[in-house]
Design a protein that fits this description.
Low-confidence stretches: none
Structural class: alpha/beta
CATH architecture of the largest domain: 3-Layer(aba) Sandwich
Number of strands: 18
Strand content: 15-25%
Mean pLDDT: 89
Helix content: 40-55%
CATH topology of the largest domain: Rossmann fold
Number of domains: 3
CATH class of the largest domain: Alpha Beta
Distance between the termini: 36 Å
Radius of gyration: 26 Å
Length: 375
């Protein structure tokens, strides 16, 4: 049997498997998680379709060129850039940008702000929270009665946002720059859902609300929604980029975490803090031992274990120090395992951990972790 040599590491996510569901910036997120030591499974839950050939976007752009909006709201950097780039393909970008110079530009966050400035324009205001709700509050406080407000959408309708503006007396012009759809090839997504529901993933990351909704929607169409939600509620940590992204999950009573600042960098840093904290450090046979997703960390050294060995370790650590009977541990070996197989499995686990004293044999009863505090 081939084993992975133990490695001493300070990487906080070493030994964990994290799923990336992003349709864009997946490579960046994957690289950041790798730097923290995680193994990564990437499967986009959605596909972004740019609308550079969409007549609706062209019509709206022409309308705003002829009659500039009083206020333009840029909600995402990629969306605002895509809008300008689409107009460049039609040869109308200079006219649109000239028209926008007479508009008051609002940016939902730093990425939208950067896109505005990259286009040679200047934003009037941007909220520190990167929240659409704060943008809406700002507009309502300004007063939009009788004003024309252009809102650049970001993948799905901002129904509540635009409805509130219309109720306040604004003429709202929606700018659909790109839209979400199902992945062209769903096999990676099917595989990801299967891995989540069978315990092969420790955490799932989401960088947009449509991505979270897309995962649940695909599971519904394939009949796997119930086991997926069960896994996300109990065994798998969900880490979102912000509270808006988490909304499709919390609607299904799936607990979700997010950083104080809605950016990928803080998301990964929060991930690296929260995921290891789910596994307490045990003092066993003079060692500091902590379980990971597919590994055990012993005194800072990560020992990668086979799935069977991890099942044994989880069973032994479920109530640390308590004796686990041979019959109980035998269930970790899978159907058909004979009674004497447990001795071999425990022996291999002891070898993999590097110190046989970590698992103590209790004569005629079974095995237990040799907790230093055990009496």
């Amino acid at each position: 049997m081939t084993t992975t040599p133990p490695q001493t590491t300070t990487a906080p996510l070493a030994g964990f498997t994290v799923a990336v569901t992003a349709a864009r910036r997946a490579e960046e997120l994957t690289a950041l998680l790798h730097r923290k030591g995680a193994q990564v499974i990437a499967a986009p839950t959605l596909r972004i379709l740019p609308l550079s050939d969409d007549q609706r976007l062209a019509t709206v752009s022409e309308q705003l060129t002829r009659a500039p909006a009083d206020i333009v709201v840029a909600t995402t950097g990629i969306g605002f850039r895509g809008w300008v780039e689409a107009c460049e393909t039609w040869g109308t970008a200079p006219q649109l940008l000239t028209a926008m110079r007479s508009s008051r530009l609002l940016a939902r966050g730093p990425k939208a702000k950067g896109a505005i400035r990259a286009a040679g324009l200047t934003e009037e205001w941007s909220p520190p929270s990167e929240s659409s709700a704060e943008v809406l509050d700002h507009l309502l406080n300004l007063g939009v009665q009788g004003l024309r407000v252009a809102v650049q959408l970001h993948g799905q309708p901002l129904t509540d946002f635009t409805a509130a503006l219309r109720l306040a007396g604004a003429e709202v012009i929606e700018v659909p720059v790109y839209r979400w759809t199902r992945p062209e090839h769903t096999a990676p997504l099917d595989s990801l859902i299967d891995t989540i529901t069978t315990g092969g993933v420790d955490a799932v990351t989401f960088t947009s609300a449509p991505a979270a909704a897309g995962l649940l929607a695909h599971a519904h169409t394939t009949g796997t929604k119930t086991p997926l939600i069960k896994a996300l509620r109990h065994d798998v940590m969900t880490m979102c980029v912000g509270p808006i992204t988490a909304r499709p999950l919390t609607t299904h009573h799936i607990p979700a975490l997010w950083p104080q600042r809605a950016r990928i960098g803080p998301q990964v840093r929060t991930h690296a803090q929260e995921l290891p904290a789910r596994f307490p450090t045990l003092t066993v046979a003079g060692h500091h031992l902590r379980l990971r997703g597919h590994a055990v960390q012993v005194d800072g050294t990560v020992h990668t274990l086979s799935p069977t060995q991890m099942r044994l370790m989880r069973a032994l650590a479920h109530h640390p120090g308590q004796v686990k009977s041979r019959d109980h541990l035998l269930t970790c070996l899978g159907p058909g395992a004979h009674a004497h197989a447990i001795e071999t499995a425990v022996a291999r686990l002891r070898t993999a951990l590097g110190d046989a004293r970590i698992i103590r044999t209790v004569v005629k009863r079974g095995y237990r972790l040799a907790l230093d505090t055990h009496r």
